[in-house]
Amino acid sequence: MRLLCHNMLQCHIKGVVNGYPLKIEAEKVETRETDYEPDFLRHIFPRIQWDALREAAAAMGVDDLPESVSEEMLEDESFLKQFHHALLEVHLEQGALVCPETGRKFVVSDGIPNLLLREDEC
Amino acid sequence: MIASIKRTTFHRDVYEPAEDSFALVDALVAHQQTWQHSPPRLCLEVGSGSGYVITSLGLLLQQLGMAVQLLATDINQQAAAATAATLAAHGVWRADVVLCDLASALLPAIEGLVDVLVFNPPYVPTPDDEVASGGLAAAWAGGARGRRVIDRLLPLVPRLLSARGEMFMVAVHENDPAELMREMEAAGFEARVALQRKADEEQLTILHFKRQQPHFPAKRPKMLSV
Question: What Gene Ontology biological process does one annotation of this record name (chain B) (predicted)?
Fold first, then answer.
């Protein structure tokens, strides 16, 4: 699971109001290089929850993302490369995603987050 | 090039690529040229099973030189693992697989971001109580008229798709494809039959829904100067 995906995931247990962002507990993180595509980064940037990305990246050992960001930074290649790396190159292979409200843990195994709910959670 | 069956992972609890999967991929292949004008950025397959379809879509777009990001969901753990394995076996790395019901875990964040949505639903008419029984049955058991899962996803489509978004889905005669088209038209989509094929005991239809584009008034003919 890459942080692009993490940035979109939330806990949807019935009745939960603050199920976002899921806190990452990393056990195994892998880094895989992928093509740098600034057009995609500029396209997706307005939809990325920056604080969630920054916190998730830090939990995965990537702690160089700036605290605050603006559209102008999308012209800065060194920023784009940091953004690219955090969003698309760092994979959570084993670990868990924790709901900030209930503490419910969703296991991530072999890179696949399990967001299935139990019957009593639907 | 599309996904190869040899490198597609499926076993006892995962739906094996079959005529319906092939028809869906054929419809995507036939459509690929139109993506050259406006490359999709994000594609989502709901219920990706073996991963044959999303992998094929990823390969098609890769060959067109497009850096598209892929997301796949499945409700069956074995199927989600199979999707990830099939993507990896074909070197399609710009992809994530999520184990969840439909797109539930991705909403609302993914709203308006999906450029291409692909859906091969459990479409076989069965008693309703077979629908949520898990495992392989989740891949085909569709309840009354085969519509139980289809009718849960379609209302989400206007939320999922981007302004230029489109959807390809498999339906069979028993699902009443004409009715599905009318429903999507009423929700603001252009609907067409992308492909029709008679397979073993099934009349397969691949439906293509695309958001109606804002209407621009036709240019007025120029007045001839006298």
Answer: methylation
The ipTM value here is: 0.96
- Chain B, 171 to 190: residues with Cβ < 8 Å from chain A are none
Range of A49's domain? 3-121
Q: Which residues on B lie below 8 Å from A56 (Cβ)? A: none
Could you say which of A2, A35, A112 has the minimum Cβ distance to residue B99? Answer: A112
- Which chain B residue has its CA at the smallest distance from A49's CA? B109
Q: pLDDT tens digit string along B130-185? A: 887 667 888 888 999 999 999 999 999 999 999 999 999 999 999 999 999 999 99
Number of domains in chain A: 1
Q: DSSP per residue over chain A, as a string?
A: -BHHHHTT-----TT-S---SPEEEEEEEEE------HHHHHHHGGGS-HHHHHHHHHHTT-----SS--GGGGG-HHHHHHHHIIIIIEEEEEEEEE-TTT--EEEEETTEEB-PPPGGG-
Candidates 3.40.50.11440, 3.40.50.150, 3.40.50.2000, 3.90.1150.10; CATH matching B19-211 = 3.40.50.150
pLDDT tens track for B23-33 = 999 999 999 99
